[in-house]
Amino acid sequence: MQFEITREYVEQLKKLIEDKNTKEVETLMEPLHPADIAEIMEGLNIDQARYIILLLDGETASDVLVEIPENDRKRLLKELPPDFIASKLIEFMDSDDAADVVADLDEDRKKEVLNEIEDFEQAGDIVDLLEYEEDTAGGIMAKELVKVNENWTVATCLKEISRQAEEVGEIYYIYVIDDTEKLKGVLSLKKLITTNTNTKISNVYNAEIKMVNTNVRKEEIAEIMDKYNLVAIPVVDEIGRLKGRITFDDVIDFIREEAEKDYQMVSGLTGDVEPGDKVFTLMRARLPWLLIGLFGGVLGSLVLGSHENQLSKATELAFFIPLIAATAGNVGVQSSAIVVQSIASGVKEFETIGKRLLKELMVAMATATIFAVLIFAYNFFSSGNMDLTFSVSISLFIVIIFASIFGTVVPLFLNRVKIDPALATGPFITTSNDIIGLSIYLLIARMFFGIL
Amino acid sequence: MQFEITREYVEQLKKLIEDKNTKEVETLMEPLHPADIAEIMEGLNIDQARYIILLLDGETASDVLVEIPENDRKRLLKELPPDFIASKLIEFMDSDDAADVVADLDEDRKKEVLNEIEDFEQAGDIVDLLEYEEDTAGGIMAKELVKVNENWTVATCLKEISRQAEEVGEIYYIYVIDDTEKLKGVLSLKKLITTNTNTKISNVYNAEIKMVNTNVRKEEIAEIMDKYNLVAIPVVDEIGRLKGRITFDDVIDFIREEAEKDYQMVSGLTGDVEPGDKVFTLMRARLPWLLIGLFGGVLGSLVLGSHENQLSKATELAFFIPLIAATAGNVGVQSSAIVVQSIASGVKEFETIGKRLLKELMVAMATATIFAVLIFAYNFFSSGNMDLTFSVSISLFIVIIFASIFGTVVPLFLNRVKIDPALATGPFITTSNDIIGLSIYLLIARMFFGIL
Q1: Cβ A290–B188 below 8 Å, yes or no?
Q2: Residue B263 is nearest to which of A35, A210, A262, comparing CB atoms?
Q3: Do the interacting molecules here have an ipTM over 0.85?
Q4: Which fold, B7-135?
C-alpha cells in the first residue's frame, strides 16, 4: 500500500545522479512523498543531495527540507544559493519552518536571504519569530492560523475562513478573538458546519480553552498538549493577544527527541548517532563517557592499590570485586532512572521528598537483605571462609543501601538546581558508585580479616 | 493560565472524601478537566477513586477513565457495578476506548456489561473491535468517523456530515467511499468549505491517501503517522473497505510507551514504575535484573577464582579488574544502544550489515587504540611494571573490540529472529561482556607474567 524504498532503488538513483541523467531521476522520484525523499537524502552525500533539491519543484523541495534532520539541513543550506532558498524554499513554507531555516544560516547569508523574500509580510513574520527564544512557545509556533471575530456571524466566518485558509496547511481549530486581538476561545469546524449561518460567533464558541504564553518552554507545552490530547494549541502574548499556534507534529518530534536524549544518557552516548554515521561522528558521541569510565577505572585501581597488602594476603577478596562494583552501579542506575522517568513523564508526585526517600530506603533494605542472604549462603557453602562470607555479605548490604539513596538523591537535587536530572544516570554516578562501593568493601573486609 | 494541582489540594480532597462530604467534593472538582481528575486519582487509594468516579457525571467519568493508566483502570473497574460501567462509562465513550474497557473485564463481567449496553449498535461495534488482535490497527482503531459517498455533491455532504458528526469527537478528515464502502480518498473540511456546493465529491477529493490494513502492527502505524505527520489514518480491510480510523493521540501514547520500554531495559527495570508506587511493585520491577547481575558477579568470582594462583602472585593485576569490567560493559551497551535506537526510529539503513560491522570495527579499533595508549602511558609512568603495563593495555584493546562487535551483532540478530533488540542493552549482555572481558584479561596476563 505504501511505496517501499529499497537499497536497489537508492543505488539506482545514485547512479543516475552520477550520470547527470536529470530526466530519469525525475521519473524515478515522481511517485515519492516528500518524507520519502527526505529519507533517501540521508543516504546521499552532500553533492547528490544538492543535485536533488535543486531539481525539485518549490513545494516539494520545501517539504523535503523540513523533514531532513537538523544537522543535515544546515550542511545542505550552506550549499544552496540565497535566491533559491528565498524563492523556492521559504516561499512555500509555514512561518515556523521558514524561521528555522533562516536561523540555520550564518549572519551574512541570513540578511541576504531575508532580503530576497518577495512577500514582505512573510519576511516580517520570520523576523518576528526569530525574536523569540528557541525552545519557547514563541520560538516554535507558526503564525499561520485561522481566526474570526466574536462579533461575526457564522456566515461571515465561513467566508472569512475560505479566504484565510489558503495560507494555512490544515485547520484544526478556528480561534475566536475580540476587537483587540485578544483570544477569547475556540470553535471547531464541526461546530461551524452544524450551526445555523445567522448565529453570532459569540454565542457558539467554546471559552474553555488551553493556551500558552509565548515564553512557556517546550517541555511544558508538550506536557499540556499530551495531557489534554490537543492537536494544536494557541500561543498568546502577556496581555492575551493571539500570536500563533503550535501543532501536534512538533510535539511528537519533541517527545521523541527528549526520550532519545534520556536514552542516550543512560547508555553512555553524548549525541544522536546512527550506525550509518561517519566514524568520526560515532567516535565523538562515544568517547567522552568512555573516557570518564577510564578515569573511574584508574581511580578504582588506586583504591584497590591502597589496599594492596590486604589483597595480597587474602586473594579471595579480589574475586568479589566485580560483584560489588556491578551491583553498586546497577542499583544506582535503577534508582536514578526511576526518578528521571517520573520527572520526564510530567506526572505530579503528591508525596513529599521525605516520604519518597523513606520508600526508597525500604526497597533498598529489602533488596539488600535478599542479596546479603543469598551471597552469604553461596559463600558459606562454597568456600566456608567465614571472614570472606561476612565481608562480602555485609559490604553488599551497605553498598546496595548507599547506591539506592545516592541514586535517588542526585537526580532530585539536579532537578532542583535546574540541571537535567538524566545526568544522574550517566557515567559520573555509576563510576562514583563503583569506587565508593569498592572502598566500603575493602574497609569492611579489613575489619574481618584484620590485615593492615 | 492552567489550573495547578497542589499537594494541599489533594490532601483537602482526601479529607473531604473521608468525611463523605459529597457537596464539597463536587465543588472542589468543579473547575477540573477530566485529565486533571485522572492525575489526582493516581494519588488516591482504590476506595477514594471509586467514590470519585461514582460521583461524576457520565461524560466526565468516561473521559477520566480513559486517561487513567491501564493497571489502575483495571483495578478500578473491578470495583464498579456492571450497569454503571455500561450506562455511565461506556455509553459516553468512543468505540476504541469502550472496547479497551470491556477487554479489561474478566469473562463473566464482560458478558454482563455488554448486555447492559442500551445502544445495540454500540455493543455491536465493541464486539467487532474485540475480534482484532490487540496491537494491530484493528485493535486500536475507533469505528467513529465521518464518511461520504463519492457520488454526492458538496451540499449533500455538508448535510450528511452534520448528521454523522454528532457521534464523532473531532473530525480531522472526511473519508470518501464508493458504493461498495471501498475507501477512495480523503477530503479536508477546509476543502469542503472552500468548494462550490454543487460540485461532485469525486471531482474534489484527494486520492493520494495513506491507509493501513486492519492487521498492520502498532509500530508500523506509529512510523507512518509520524513520518507523514498525519493527525489520523484510516483503517481498511483486505478488500479495501473502510473500517475505522486511528488518531494522533493513540500514536503519541504509543511512541512514549515504546521509548519508556527501551529506557527501562537499559536501566535495568522490568516495568514502568514511579517513585510513588508500592514497595512491592518497585521490588518486582527491580529485582529480576539485579539478580541476573548477582549471578553474573558470582560467575565472575569463579573466573577470578580459577586464576587464584596468578592473582596471589601478582596482586597488582586485581587493581585493574574494575577498569576492564566497566569498559567492557560500557562499550557493549553503547554499541547495542546505537543499533536499538536506529531500529526504533524506523529510519531505513541503506547500508549492508557487512558495511555496518566494518564501520563498527573501525570505530572500535580507533577507540581501542586510544585507550590502550592512554592506559599504557599511565601504567608505564606510575608503576613501571612492564608485565602489568602490557597486560592491561593489550587486554583493554582486545576487550573493546570484542565488546563492540558483540554489542552490535546481538541486537541485529535478535531483531532478525523477531525478538525485541532492546534486550541486548539489558543485563545479559553487560554481564557476559564483564565475564568475557575478565577472562581475556587474565589469559593475556598469564602470557606476560608466566604464572600458572
Answers
A1: no
A2: A262
A3: no
A4: MgtE N-terminal fold (1.25.60)
